[in-house]
Amino acid sequence: MTIAVSVVVPVYNPGRYLDPLLRSLDRQSLPTERFETVFVDDGSTDGTAGLLDAWCADRENAHVIHQANHGWPGQPRNVGIAAARGSYIQFVDQDDWLGDEALERLTSYADANGSDVVVGKMVGVDRRVPTALFRRSVPRAQIGVDRIEDSQTPHKMFRRAFLDRIGLRFPEDTRRLEDHLFVTAAYLRADVVSVYAETDCYFHTSRDDGRNAGFRSYDPVPYYAVVEEVIDLVEDHLPAGAARERYLSRWLRNELIGRLRSPIVRDLPTARRQVFYDEVSRIVRQRYAPTALRATTATVAVGAAIARHAPMSEFYRADDALHRIDVRAWEDDGGIGLELMDAGRTLTPGTTLAAVLRAHLSPSIVEPVLADLGARAAERVVPDRITRISGAPRTVFTGDGVVFRAPDATAHAGDRIRVASALGPRETTVTAERRRGGGGSGAVAGRRRAARRLKDWTVRLLPSRVRRVFRRRPRPR
């Protein structure tokens, strides 16, 4: 019988983290004669080699390739591609696992749609994964429309003949984001990319010991050199225009502005943080036109515009000030009263983004920043609608910037609401009555943010048995 799919797994010293994957392979609904597993053991020294030999000896559809340590997963994945016999290849990391019906569902979906790439629904286990991408299945995804760029990890199903036809393989040197180069090339050169969202297919995990390859510290200069390689690749295959700008906004959001705002960079010593900032600022200036900034979310656009023109100290000073703008909400005769507070000052309904930025940026950069933001700078900061997201059915309340009402719904204390603002989304809880001053909402927000950062770093340093107290982790079956 023809092998439908080869599961390729690069392996190096996984220890106990390999077991959930092995169990998930044994639970697959696809008959064993229809799939194979190819483990590429990259010189493990923890007993994994013997464990895999014994496991594969009991299963005709599994085998292991042993090799000297190469040190990075790209080369072992290429070895797996060369050994694979299936019509499709599904890449899996050693510390992740598959949903029980994943291989059967994904191969059937790929056959039905003639897919070169199938992005199966991912579930994050103590880590973030794309969610908007998997709101629905998309048989033929469109670049710049269906957000496939949100998923850049290799944990997808690829048609083996497609990889061979275009000669696509992983870079084999030791560099981060090698998967971005592979996945982006596949997306942009495939005839059909499909998104399958009906079943949980791939469980992407964060290890208790913090030793996921993606969590290791890194040098920003070579890291951002690879980001530029990805940008080059996109520019080579997508014509200039809205689709390209939407596609490239993913790196602006995550690896550039998002990285500057993350504790991983914010908490670095000043000199090392400066190297990160210089690389991000340079790429945003040189590789992203102002029109690309306007194609992304408000918070990313504002951060990028500031990074294009401001020194590091001013970027963080202004970014902190903008994030301290607080939202307060309270019951108001069945509706919701709302105010945005900036350093103790209530923002009026007519306050624009430009007015807020002028209050927090130095005169030397404020006009260039506003020019980069274009019409977005004229957007009002206080919204005319807010969304109730908990406490009752999801409901949109509209208003004049001060009081918001819905025709067939009543607000109550304890409801959770989301406020979509030109400063980016904010969430808060409706209180029974209006709160007043007394201590400054910005200080409260700052303390909460500092506490979250402290907890993030504390949890990473704790022994794994203690760390479980802070995390709710789905147990692998």
Automatic annotation (TrEMBL):
Gene3D superfamilies, per database record: Spore Coat Polysaccharide Biosynthesis Protein SpsA, Chain A
Sequence ranges assigned to domain Glycosyltransferase 2-like in this UniProt record: 6-128
CDD domains registered for this protein in UniProt: Glyco_tranf_GTA_type (cd00761)
UniProt-recorded Gene Ontology molecular function terms: hexosyltransferase activity
Coiled-coil annotated spans: none
Domain TarS/TarP linker: residue ranges: 220-311
Pfam families: Glycos_transf_2, TarS_linker
Matches recorded under InterPro entries: Glyco_trans_2-like, Nucleotide-diphossugar_trans, TarS/TarP_linker
Ranges where the record places region Disordered: 426-447
Parts of the chain that traverse the membrane: none
UniProt superkingdom: Bacteria
Protein name: Uncharacterized protein
High-level lineage: Bacteria, Bacillati, Actinomycetota, Actinomycetes, Micrococcales
